[in-house]
Specification:
With 867 residues, the protein is α/β, with parallel strands linked by helices. Helices cover 23% and strands 32% of the residues. The protein folds into six domains: 87 residues; 156 residues, Rossmann fold, CATH 3.40.50.410; 97 residues, Immunoglobulins (Immunoglobulin-like, Sandwich); 159 residues, Class I glutamine amidotransferase (GATase) domain (Rossmann fold), CATH 3.40.50.880; 189 residues, 3-Layer(aba) Sandwich (Rossmann fold); 84 residues, Immunoglobulin-like (Sandwich), CATH 2.60.40.10. The two termini are 35 Å apart.
Amino acid sequence: MRLGPLVLGDVRWLWLLVPVFILAAIDLWRGWGARGQRWRGMIVRALVLSTLAVALADPRWERRRQGAYVIFVVDRSASISDAGVADAMSRVEALRGPLGQDVRVGLVVADGSPTVAVMPGEPWRVPEALRGERSEATDLSAALDMARALVPSGDSGQIVLLSDGRPTAGERRVSVIAPRLQGLPVHTVTIAPERKDAAITAVLVDNANVRPGATTSGTIEVDGGIAPFKGEVLLRVDGKVVKSQRVELEAGESKKLPFEASVPLGTPEGELAVEAELVPDGAADPQAHAAAAVAVGQKPKVLLLAAEPKDGELLASALRAEAMEIEVRTLEARNFPKEIEKETDLVIIANAPAAAVSGQRGLSEELLTSLAKWVDAGGGLVVLGGPRAFDLGGYAGTPIERVLPIRLDPVDPLTEPAATIIAVLDQSGSMGAHAGGKTKMELADEAVFASVQMLRPFDYVGLTTVTTEASWDVKVQPVADALDLEKKILSIRSEGGGIYVYTGIEAAFTALKDAPTPLKHVLLFSDCADSEEKVSYRNSRSALDLASEQRAAGVTLSVIGIGEETDPDTAWLKQLAEAGGGKFYLTNDATKLRALFVEETERIVDSSVQEGDFRPQVATQNPMTAGIDYANAPMLNAYQRLTPRKTSETVLLAPGTDPLLVTWRYGLGHVVVWSSDAGGRWAKNWIAWEGFNKQWTQIARYSLRTKAGGTTAVEVDFSGGEPIARLVRRDPSGMTLDGRARLRLKSGGSIQELSLKSREPGLYEAKIDVPPSGVHALEVVDDDDKVIHTERFVVPPPEERRHRTADTAWLQDLSSRTAGTVDVQALNPALAPSSTPEHLRLWPFVALAAALLIPLDAALRRMARVV
């Protein structure tokens, strides 16, 4: 209850006044003594009882004092020298001295854990030991919040911050800190860190976990001194100088020098030192040194799944040369695994079809399911093109399809008609002539095999060679089952005599009667100067009539002739192709046979394989292609036309906008698709090129496994200055895993069990204390004391000591946003009534008045002889 400046703490006690007045009336009614005595006695007793009731109501006299608050915040973190702290306190004394008695002054000291050294309004007694052990963190946000809390809300106040303006913990953004100060101006005084000679303040590595043969990169931070500097920065890896860089610094100038260095291939598992030295011109010894450490892991373990050895042998050799352990499994050897082992770092699929293509052969459903889960949990996957890859390999509709950064349309014989193609080859003596270093027969063999590679897994193929008789080198069979096709086709050689055309196409047409596919096609290759048996020598029937008859039955015929337009059989071969409902191709250059065979096959089956020489075009910059000169690369000969997904990244382009190298993240893993191959089929010109090994090494290292599993993860957070280990144990749905897991720290030969605290379901934290050097490890251990996850880490250089200059821009921004003064020289806080009133408690005085009235009450009643 307020009555002007008078405030009653508990007005309920005033209800006692009611019985007081009743008692006074009764006392007056009793009729004792003279009338005047009764009135005087009643009034005095009523006053005694009333003052006691008022005293119990806790009366207070309220007043608001004119005044202001000034809170000094002094940075005492490790980046500030003892001399800097002493200088800051001298500035505090200079600013505090002129302030009057109406200004309440407080002191907050700031580091990783700010504290109040002097409460405002209390005697100014600064602790003698203002700093103990130097803190490796500066939380200016927490210090300013603490200073703000010392100023009562609504009171006049100011904050003076004496710091280098480099917070290394807590909130660092001025745009967030300033509004929290609720209008209090912050004046700033710059405390410059100590700096003398030029120095290397830090060696920062981008990735503290590397593998042998990998490239480690980072930044060397160099800070100038009080005088200009000229000299060299030497980079050492494992004690050996691997790079020297010229550096010139003006006084007070700082520079960041990026670096890259290879981890030696034979580096054992453990710690690897990365050091930087600053050597002045003319000096033999460095004047400054800084170091970092990286944790070297085991050699990457790569599983290469290929259709045949030749699909992966060149790639395997390139990666073995880069200290990777390669295990090659082939469809030919029938030794594909059933699942991906947890220790595998990378899986490469090179022209290996899915099992759906041919029953039990290829990549099984079980293996592909395991592969998809493994990639989702952090595994790396690289998939190469080839005649048995992607849509041609039956990947659509399998578990691997959703993992790939490309979209696959199922090649389904129910929706896309299968084809049976029989090649009829001229094996006459004229095919033994040489062209381009090979015989015409050898070039024809290669052309036929190239066309076979264009076929889909559910297509059928056959090959007959003809002189005077037809000989079946490859009987009609599914493409997916023909593992030895290449050997059979490429071993065909020319014989004597000419080609009996009728005999050859009749054999092909007869074989096609039993073909189970809706599309049936014969491809005849013949010499335009030596095509015999236009009419059957056995039944005098014309080859043209036979072709027309078969066309009516749904079997088509195309002809590839080698020779000139003026050769005697050219016109007739054209008529034969026309009668068969196909196309006629003519060339006098046997080296072009491959392109013609492929063109005709693509016309029949519309294959995704695109033949033709081209150079890759760089679409986006990526570590996989860094430092490779694709503009001067040899030609690739073919690729598969693929469609990238919307969220994927196309790194290299084939002709037009077709992707050649495309990647994305699937879950925690990297997936890379290369739409050509890495062998002698489509990339034979690249084998001797220096960029071949470099590209595949960089692709492999880019794609390596990043996490051991999706259910258990460990990280170490150094952002707050005090390292904190975090353990996450959740299943794929985000639920906490059953079973107890412990976390232990291995450092310097000792093992320490950490005390975990639950922060949220499935997330646990523990503070750790490790020396700044060396490689440390955190192990997750289950109830059976089995290690289920290991995370190696190194302690980064403390950010607190990386800077030897003040961040004046940060300090200026803070003062500007809070209407404070930069480098304040004097304080003149405006005095204002305090929002927190001062109270003078009156109950002792009221109680004293009651006590003084009691003798008077007793005297008046004694005189009348009443109580």
